[in-house]
Amino acid sequence: MNGVHLVTDRGLCRGRSLEEVVLAAVRGGAASVQLREKDLATRPFVEEAARLKALLAPWKVPLIINDRLDVALAVGAEGVHVGQQDMPCATVRRLLPGAIIGLSVETWEDVVRAQDEPVDYLGVSPVFATPTKTDTRGAWGLEGLARIRAYSRHPLVAIGGVNRETIAAVAQAGAHGAAVVSAICSAEDPEKACGELVRLFRS
């Protein structure tokens, strides 16, 4: 899970279609796309996921579904990202044996428990306070991210307040990847914004 990863938020796309923003991000170098839909019913969620899966296939960019294992199974998504209150990771792994599985960690207890979880990466959430992550227990900060990096056996993907001003520091603190929402979705030019984030993350 190295690189910059787009996490979708249709409400931040400034009137553009989700497909338009996703395609621009991929052209800008996004390493994966995580489809996050908190309020969408199952059928439109599956239909949207199927459209994005087809859009991403020629680019060989994986589609990761946030929370919804059923949607991931329905469209053959490459991965699923779960939170602490979602289906247990061992069950997800049994149902999706070859998938990319991510797990959000919001407390140090989460990090410790995650050592034994069959996941591919930890989503460190949030690194910085952000309006797109309102249901968490406080921000980790760069010191918290570095502490997790020193302890955890899993690759880390940082999320929350990651933008052009913070992304280089996130990489220096030990994140293998950075998940970005508003800095791409709300950008005037999402392709250019993603490309710059990729460059800064690698610098």
From TrEMBL:
Keyword Transcription: no
Keyword field: Magnesium, Metal-binding, Thiamine biosynthesis, Transferase
Cofactor binding comment, as recorded: Binds 1 Mg(2+) ion per subunit.
Binding site for 4-amino-2-methyl-5-(diphosphooxymethyl)pyrimidine: Q34, L35, R36, E37, K38, N66, S104, K133
GO cellular component: cytoplasm
Catalysed reaction equations from the record: 2-[(2R,5Z)-2-carboxy-4-methylthiazol-5(2H)-ylidene]ethyl phosphate + 4-amino-2-methyl-5-(diphosphooxymethyl)pyrimidine + 2 H(+) = thiamine phosphate + CO2 + diphosphate; 2-(2-carboxy-4-methylthiazol-5-yl)ethyl phosphate + 4-amino-2-methyl-5-(diphosphooxymethyl)pyrimidine + 2 H(+) = thiamine phosphate + CO2 + diphosphate; 4-methyl-5-(2-phosphooxyethyl)-thiazole + 4-amino-2-methyl-5-(diphosphooxymethyl)pyrimidine + H(+) = thiamine phosphate + diphosphate
Binding positions for 2-[(2R,5Z)-2-carboxy-4-methylthiazol-5(2H)-ylidene]ethyl phosphate per the UniProt entry: T130, P131, T132, G161, V181, S182
Family affiliation: Belongs to the thiamine-phosphate synthase family.
Xref: PANTHER family: THIAMINE-PHOSPHATE PYROPHOSPHORYLASE, THIAMINE-PHOSPHATE SYNTHASE
Protein name, UniProt field: Thiamine-phosphate synthase
Lineage start: Bacteria, Pseudomonadati, Acidobacteriota, Holophagae, Holophagales
